[in-house]
Design a protein that fits this description.
Structural class: alpha/beta
Low-confidence stretches: none
Strand content: 35-45%
Order of helices and strands: EHEEEEHEEE
Oligomer: single chain
Radius of gyration: 15 Å
Distance between the termini: 22 Å
Length: about 120
């Protein structure tokens, strides 16, 4: 039986600012529903991913800026360029024996690592 991660909560202080940021980076805005008072559910999916993130009111008790997420990409340099073209500050490519990495943060300081691995050339 496969176990696949579906959704990761990302704590933010300003839902609309965070949603705009992630859409600018290339995430798809799948859902944005105010379910009830105190519960707004905004689901965003990175390009090509089967796993999404969720931001909103009533989603998580985590402190904004504390979430860390790592994703695999096909090409670290191309991913960095995509971030820079979107106006997002991104690290230089960091070559490691287990892959090339690019790091960035969302407006709340939640950190993202993008890893390109030769053994997984399509991400």
């Amino acid at each position: 039986m496969d176990w696949k991660i579906e959704l990761i909560p990302v704590p933010v202080t300003d839902i609309d600012r965070a949603k705009d940021f992630y859409v600018k980076v290339g995430f798809n805005a799948d859902h944005d529903h105010k379910v009830q008072e105190g519960l707004r559910f905004v689901q965003l999916t990175p390009p090509g991913s089967a796993c999404s993130i969720v931001i909103g009111d009533g989603i998580t008790e985590k402190t904004p800026g504390t979430q860390e997420i790592q994703v695999v990409v096909a090409d670290a340099e191309a991913a960095r360029k995509q971030l820079l073209d979107a106006g997002v500050e991104a690290s230089e490519v960091d070559p490691q024996p287990w892959g090339n990495f690019v790091y960035f943060r969302d407006p709340d300081g939640n950190s993202w690592s993008l890893q390109a691995m030769e053994s997984r050339p399509n991400g």
